[in-house]
Design goal:
By secondary structure, the protein is α/β, with parallel strands linked by helices. The chain has a domain of 151 residues: 3-Layer(aba) Sandwich (Rossmann fold), CATH 3.40.50. Helix content is 44%, strand content 23%. A 6-stranded mixed sheet has the order 6-7-8-3-9-10. A hairpin with a 2-residue loop joins strand 9 and strand 10. It is globular, with a radius of gyration of 19 Å. The two termini are 19 Å apart. About 3% of the residues have low confidence. The structure holds adenosine-5'-triphosphate. Adenosine-5'-triphosphate (ATP) binds next to helix 2. GO terms for molecular function: ATP binding. InterPro entries: AAA+_ATPase, ABC_transporter-like_ATP-bd, ABC_transporter-like_CS, P-loop_NTPase. This is Phospholipid/cholesterol/gamma-HCH transport system ATP-binding protein.
């Protein structure tokens, strides 16, 4: 078992080094999102207890944890969709609770979100869906919004004809791409992706991962990705944070996950499925 573990660590160390060398030339140590001592509870049910997490500019952070651990609660709290009991959330250097309403609106425009299952408005076309945030936050003429929507559609690899389609006319992979285009509508600095590859076949999931990596490289995006997808964690994430026992149990590279002795982390990252992914990558 130890030999197997050492071999996996050595293989991953090489891959991590390659990935780090490929990272865009941004200040990797600029903290774009900082969560300090965050506590969130529903009545007496404490879901997150003094949780700490930093996300650095330009990285793709994979966020994992057992079902029900609180991954969605954390994402929703950071997005101010859920209230917190205590703690501090700082985005792009501004603490949400301390900024004015106007500054908060500006901050909101710098965040993009892709909710699980896409969450597109079914009565709107892809173009209209992408234009929802533009209508909410910007005051632009219709032609400019149409041109911007066209650019976003192209950016996520959808055909131009997709603009006039309704969500019911799209495949699962197209819905994810359309939802990503909407998340990118306002050119955010930080995008939150909730299970972006769930429901996609392995080829579609790998293509989506490649798209995320490409957008990070070309747009300098920072990506916070909640995922259960081991392929994504091994192939596209620069760093991983594991949620457990109401806190971030461990964070770091795949090597750090492989070296971690926590029972859940061990079974997740050194289980049969993880080992087969490491072998496939060779
Ligand atoms: N609005 C809410 N009211 C009460 N309890 C909630 C609410 N939202 C989440 N919870 C509880 O918080 C805990 C964490 O839920 P959460 O959805 O964040 O888990 P998760 O890690 O995202 O799970 P999964 O991987 O299955 O999506 C669960 O016990 C859930 O029942």
């Amino acid at each position: 078992m130890d030999e197997e573990r050492q071999e996996m660590q050595a293989q991953q160390a090489e891959k991590t080094e390659d990935r780090v060398n490929e990272l865009p030339a941004t200040d990797e140590h600029e903290v774009i999102l900082s969560v300090k001592d965050l506590t969130v509870a529903f009545g007496s049910h404490v879901v997150l207890d003094k949780l700490n997490l930093d996300i650095y500019r330009g990285e793709i952070l994979g966020f994992v944890g057992a079902s029900g651990a609180g991954k969605s609660v954390l994402m929703r709290t950071v997005l101010r969709l859920l209230p917190k009991q205590s703690g501090k959330i700082t985005i792009l250097g501004s603490e949400y609770d301390e900024v004015s309403d106007e500054e908060r609106i500006v901050l909101d425009t710098r965040l993009g979100v892709l909710f699980q299952h896409g969450a597109l408005f079914s009565a709107l076309t892809v173009r209209e869906n992408i234009q929802v945030p533009m209508r909410e936050y910007l005051n632009l003429p219709q032609e400019m919004m149409d041109e911007l929507a066209r650019l976003k559609i192209d950016m996520v690899g959808l055909a131009p004809e997709a603009a006039d389609k309704y969500p019911s006319e799209l495949s699962g992979g197209m819905i994810k791409r359309a939802a990503l285009a909407r998340a990118l509508a306002l050119d955010p600095d930080l995008v939150f992706l909730d299970e972006p590859t769930s429901g996609l076949d392995p080829i579609g999931a790998a293509e989506f991962d490649n798209l995320i990596a490409k957008l990070r490289d070309t747009l300098g995006l920072t990506v916070y990705m909640v995922t259960h997808d081991l392929d994504s964690l091994f192939s596209v994430c620069d760093r991983i944070a594991v949620l457990g026992k109401k806190k971030v149990l461990v964070e770091g590279t795949i090597d750090d996950m492989l070296a971690c002795d926590d029972e859940w982390v061990t079974s997740y990252f050194r289980g049969k499925r993880a080992r087969s992914i490491v072998r496939e990558q060779d």
